[in-house]
Specification:
Chain lengths: 433, 317
């Protein structure tokens, strides 16, 4: 049995201490045989629990030219993630047990990180009739999160019934809040800049209005509602009011919305085209404060790989989305930790404990506690590095951070005790002798 | 100047370009309309969107400067068969052309092409963004009317009050004029139905111009020029645009409104919808600059092509 001892790591950013890994679990360092243990000197590094991403697009099946489950989990591991929830907008859509079980199985084969398929709310994401949510929940993939992400469940009646179903399954509906009638042809934030650039705007109200409606529906259904990628100050205020009312609502923010603004669109570079769009400075401020005060519960990447041809075109014609798994922690360190808004324990809460709780993924309840599965990340917070396309482990490089310096470097990762990242490189699978 | 992508330029640059266009304008009086300046140079008019007027104007401008001008239409070309904007641009550049004039339905497409192909690019209208040569020709025609054709050279438009009327939100002509005319010292007011005025105009800070919803208020101020934009009510998704009757009541230059504007020049980028944006009497009045604008278009585009491509302008590659 291999035993690993990590020494000198600042546990959750606190005092330096020791962590011991044996049999896939964190064990009491006092009980292990130090002479035979593999030692990892973690002096100066921060130890975090494995990160959990509630919002990842792995593109398989159907979009393998942009990402596969095997390449997606490499990006995840490199970014410090040990569990990712894979969105349902694949081809075919993840609206049948066959598809979610395939995704689940490919995730198991890929190792490196746990892949939890998200089920579609409506058949084909078409927003017309409910998918067989109970069958998806009862499948081998045990779906606990349902989302039509990429599309809003715009029909209020459908959303109501989906919430009622979800409540009976202890599942959550993750809503992509975007009123389609208010966002026809929208490609960027609705603002004076959009008018200047001649690009069609996406008004803040199109997000906040859906969230307000869904909060009321969730309350009536006694269901859990999760709001994907909150992007505006107005939505923050709606979520805050809903929480004050006692509604079971949770919300996520992406790393890019915490760090970037619409000004980048001035270049017409489609790398900056994302849905919801990059917003204004006032929104970035509100999102950071909301994440700090708990109004927004988690950070989720909305990792959205695209092949180059989908982005090398006019802004209005390009695909929406950015890759984010490998830059998420650095973006959060820069926007939240270095600004003093969140400590490392807070980072663990918003990037691991709480997303796992929302997605009902066990093993993350007590971060880095003895007896927990050994999902461990060692990050060097003092390192700074420029993001380069050639260094990204995922298949696509449509990152808004290319050429940008971000703080922090994920050096080592363990997923259930298996070393997935060593010195910032993927630890390849051991070939069976 | 490496490209002409926007009408945002400083006063000196704009005046110099208009003066160069005055030089080019003299060709109108010649029997033999041919200058050798761009002999041996090849210009491609890459038009992803239908346009007869602008394309012809660029074609004539290039030919009068002795350039070889090739028209490539987006429709029926590889671009309509799924080829990316980038590949289309790189393909044309690889044929050894010297400059590309681009018209596209996508805002920002000329700026991206300029980055990708490393050749001078002229924006001949991109989506709802800009149409810089239209703004230049408007400034050229207006400058001649204000100062007189023989005294325009070297002058700007200081204190000239221009009202631009119509579907501001979807107009690249309005955007480019709102950038260029203030740089020349003019005071610009954008006028239109509230649903067709963009945020930038409404908040007034970005483009540095004033926005008004009442044409009659603006008429009472007796502007020096009234520029009517082409209105395509059928294009505006039906729901947000006023009906034709409502538009005429509020924003058309009718005979009745024309009578209240004895000194105001009437401008229109064409093609005109007589009876909708303006009455026939307004279009055909002595105050109308419509045909002068068309003529100015050739001179201004000659000046732009000359600036970008002539060897003595640093335009050789």
């Amino acid at each position: 049995m291999t035993v690993t001892l990590l020494t000198g790591a600042r546990i959750l950013g606190g005092e330096p201490g020791e962590l011991a890994i044996a049999d896939g679990l964190l064990v009491d360092p006092a009980t292990i045989d130090r002479d035979t243990a593999e030692l990892v000197d973690a002096s100066g590094l921060v130890a975090l629990p494995g990160l959990v991403d509630l919002h990842t697009h792995l593109r398989q099946p159907g979009g393998e030219q942009a990402e596969t489950i095997a390449t997606g989990v490499r990006a995840a591991a490199a970014g410090g993630y040990t569990c990712v929830f894979a969105m349902a907008n694949t081809t075919p859509v993840a609206d049948t047990p066959a598809v979610v079980e395939q995704v689940h199985r490919l995730g198991v084969e890929a190792e490196l990180a746990t892949v939890r398929p998200i089920g579609a709310v409506t058949v084909g994401l078409a927003g017309e009739r409910l998918a067989d949510m109970g069958m998806l929940a009862g499948s081998a993939a045990r779906v606990t999160v349902f989302s039509d992400d990429g599309h809003c469940v715009a029909d209020a009646e459908l959303m109501r019934r989906a919430l009622e179903h979800a409540a009976s399954l202890d599942a959550v509906i993750a809503q992509h809040a975007q009123d389609p009638a208010l966002t026809r042809g929208s490609v960027m934030h609705e603002s004076p800049l959009a008018a200047e650039l001649g690009l069609t705007g996406w008004p803040s109200a199109a997000e906040a209005a859906i969230v307000a409606r869904d909060a009321m529906l969730a309350e009536a259904a006694g269901a859990r509602l999760h709001v994907c990628h909150v992007s505006t100050l107005e939505t923050v205020e709606v979520v805050r009011a809903a929480k004050a009312r006692g509604i079971a609502i949770t919300a996520e923010v992406t790393p890019h919305h915490l760090l970037l603004t619409e000004e980048l669109v001035r270049s017409y570079d489609a790398r900056y085209k994302v849905n919801p769009p990059l917003r204004a400075e006032r929104d970035v401020r509100a999102l950071r404060e909301a994440l700090a005060d708990g109004t927004i519960d988690i950070v989720a990447t909305d990792h959205a790989p695209h092949a180059p041809e989908a982005k090398q075109t006019a802004f209005a014609d390009a695909a929406f989305g950015m890759v984010g798994l490998e830059t998420a922690l650095g973006a959060v360190q820069q926007s939240m930790v270095e600004t003093g808004l969140l400590d490392w324990a807070g980072v663990a809460r918003v990037m691991s404990t709480t997303p796992a709780a929302i997605g009902r993924e066990p093993g993350y309840e007590a971060p880095l506690a003895i007896g927990s599965p050994a999902h461990v990340v060692l990050v060097d917070p003092a390192a700074r590095g420029t993001i380069e396309a050639s260094r990204l482990k995922g298949r696509s490089a449509n990152s808004p951070f290319l050429g940008v310096e971000l703080p922090g470097r994920v050096l080592h990762v363990w997923h259930a005790g298996r070393r997935t990242v060593t010195d910032a490189e993927i630890t390849e699978k051991q070939v069976q002798a | 100047m490496k490209h002409l992508l926007t009408a945002a330029m400083d006063r000196d640059e704009a005046v110099a370009l208009l003066d160069l266009a005055e030089d080019m304008h003299q060709i109108q009086d010649r029997e033999l309309k041919k200058l050798p300046a761009l002999r041996g140079r090849t210009v491609v008019n890459l038009f992803f969107e239908d346009s007869t007027r602008t394309r012809s104007s660029f074609e004539i401008a290039g030919k009068w400067l002795s350039a070889d001008v090739i028209n490539v239409s987006g429709k029926g070309s590889s671009a309509s068969k799924g080829e990316s904007l980038r590949d289309t641009g790189l393909t044309i550049a690889a044929m050894g052309v010297d400059g590309v004039v681009v018209r596209s339905g996508a805002s920002g497409a000329p700026a991206l092409l300029a980055d990708w192909i490393g050749r001078p690019v002229v924006n001949a209208g991109d989506g709802t963004h800009e149409h810089p040569t239209q703004a230049l020709l408007d400034a050229f025609a207006l400058r001649r009317r204000i100062h007189g054709p023989d005294a325009a050279r070297g002058k700007a438009l200081d204190g000239v009050r221009v009202a631009i009327v119509g579907d501001i939100a979807h107009s690249r002509v309005a955007r480019s004029n709102a950038l260029l005319l203030p740089a020349l010292g003019a005071e610009v007011t954008l006028v239109g139905p509230p649903s067709l005025l963009p945020l930038a105009a409404a908040d007034g800070t970005r483009l540095g111009v004033r926005a008004e919803t009442s044409l009659d208020t603006v008429i009472a101020e007796q502007p020096d020029a009234l520029m009517l934009l082409r209105v395509q009510l059928e294009r505006q998704a039906g729901k947000v645009a006023p009906s034709a009757a409502e538009y005429i009541t509020g924003w058309s230059l009718t005979d009745e409104r024309l009578a209240r504007l004895p000194q105001t020049r009437i401008m229109h980028p064409g093609p005109m919808n007589r009876g909708l944006e303006l009455s026939s009497r307004a279009a055909d009045s002595d105050a109308s600059t419509v045909l002068e604008q068309v003529t100015a278009g050739v001179s201004v585009r000659m000046a732009v092509l000359y600036s970008l491509l002539a060897s003595d302008q640093g335009g050789s590659r």
